[in-house]
Amino acid sequence: MSITLEDISKATGFSPATVSRVLSNSRYPVNAATRQRILEVAQTLGYRPNLSARSLRTDRTHTVGVLVDDIMSPFVPPIVRGIQDHLMQYGFSCLIVNSDWSPDFEYAAIENLLSHSVDGIIFVEYSHLAVHEALEQSQKPHLFVHRLFGGAVKNSIVPDDYHGATLAMRHLIDLGHRRVGYISGPENWHTSRGRLAGYRDELARQGITFDPVLVQPGDWEFDAGYAGARRLLELAERPTAVFATNDVMALGAIYGLQDAGLAVPADIGVVGYDNRDFTKIFRPQITTVSLPAYEMGRTAAERLLTQITHGKSDFEEIKITGQLYVRESCGADAALRTPEEPLAATVFRRVLLNKQPEE
Amino acid sequence: MSITLEDISKATGFSPATVSRVLSNSRYPVNAATRQRILEVAQTLGYRPNLSARSLRTDRTHTVGVLVDDIMSPFVPPIVRGIQDHLMQYGFSCLIVNSDWSPDFEYAAIENLLSHSVDGIIFVEYSHLAVHEALEQSQKPHLFVHRLFGGAVKNSIVPDDYHGATLAMRHLIDLGHRRVGYISGPENWHTSRGRLAGYRDELARQGITFDPVLVQPGDWEFDAGYAGARRLLELAERPTAVFATNDVMALGAIYGLQDAGLAVPADIGVVGYDNRDFTKIFRPQITTVSLPAYEMGRTAAERLLTQITHGKSDFEEIKITGQLYVRESCGADAALRTPEEPLAATVFRRVLLNKQPEE
DNA sequence: GTGAAAGCGCTAACAT
DNA sequence: ATGTTAGCGCTTTCAC
Asked: What are phi and psi of A102, to 5 degrees?
């Protein structure tokens, strides 16, 4: 049914060995004319290597496992895309599995991936990290992207939350704000800790004393942003701006402030974090710092591939920096706005609208 | 290094064949005690089948290819999740590849998937559908989910846009609206045609004459919603509600109406379509009809698996219905609101906040 | 520069 | 109910 090496071998008269050497891109020497001929025949016959056979023989699948908490979580798709784009360049594919934040599912998924003989595994967002014996024994490289909990861990790629918070604060301070309310994430997320440290340190660098009453607790959800903003307004000395440490809370905060009769940004500025899609279509458009999901994924794939090719070698936590997107909610001059790039899907639609008539 | 059937064979004294029969869940008869013993040993030794070897032998990989336009497109992750959840139940994994709306990339991806000997392929959203010869020859089942362009096609699973539009219109009419503005999608998307037909037919069913001036063109983007709403307000006879056929345009429409000095929903109601995440956090919360992405994915996987197991057999286009989510923007009574369910990630966070202390 | 042959781990046909 | 054997398609020694 499907064309095999042997078919090509018969068709060309060369042995399967030679054919293999040509078709598997081996750098074993083969006469140029021979190579040429084999390539031609393979092309016309429509040869497609049987990857199962190849992997059985070589114990390398050119496939990596990607273990995500949930493909539907907001930052997972861009992380995955970053991984895929890099892998594809090197002829690797990926098998994606969800763990649903369950150690048991995670364990089963790892077993499954190992059964598939993946060449390495990338853990996205969640990882129970109870050292998986089989995984350790397999000596397959594996690393962590955007791991949400716990402290720094080897072989992990995380966002540089400290730096991001610094960017947001620096921007607000440049805008003249001295008293900036802060709405935090849950304490056990290292992202929360990083952003808070950035907030405090940037204040210090600008010679502004940190005032703990300005720090409101939050849990990343809308209501926490709303409530936090309201509490900030009850302070004896009100802040003139609010740094909500994710976009969802920033949205809640804006509504909270508006409900209290304040205009954003005219009366009080707001900055979010993450650069979620909705920050661009909401009004006022939300100034925010990007969570560099795509870049983290790409970096992860890059490091994994290095380890797959050159052998395992631990690296220290890598931090990827995001950038500040100046929009409206902070109150900055229009001239300071960051130019926006349309989403890929939008670009595609535009092209299509102009080109493709009714099918 | 890794445990093989032969290891188990030696450890138990049974032949590899018997061991295989037990460990591959063959329904070939094996003595209960033998089975028991083999299972035990396999367990303690940590046997994990080598899927490459198995697939080389059986020509079945228990893997399906999922060819998406872009994993980052809004509806793709839930579709993929639906596919994965169903596949997982039957021990199937999936290989996900992006086509970026390019026929060439799509072609290459199919070749790649066939090389991986996937048992079937699901095309998500985009498909050039220039009948891929190798794919046809392979006789592997393949089908289409949420195909965006062109007319009805066999073996495809699409949203029931007609029905969804009907739900939205019925709701608005029940609320007393007789004159409902309509903001359309691009004409060459069948989703646009389905929604428009639902709009017209539901009007007819309720004895309301269709007025073409109420139909404004759109391209799914924010600006089209905004402009469409403004144009509707310039009509001699203004509508009392607007049905924007996706949530992004609904958002644009709401801002357009607000900029014209109208309150939503007090002065004019708005209904969107798709049930995007932001409709729940925006104010007013947007009433919308869900695009049943997850269910479409699940159905696709189900049909594909049927074909993989029982042989290819074409089916006519399957339409999956979404449901109406009554929120605030339509102006319905609070009593009529659809109860909301939190996102999986949110639930997880809540659990974690209560349980997991500092690591 | 090319070919012959072995074997990766597994399953299935064919014995027994 | 169990064992023997062949072979899936490929790569890789090892010969020549």
From this structure: -115, 125
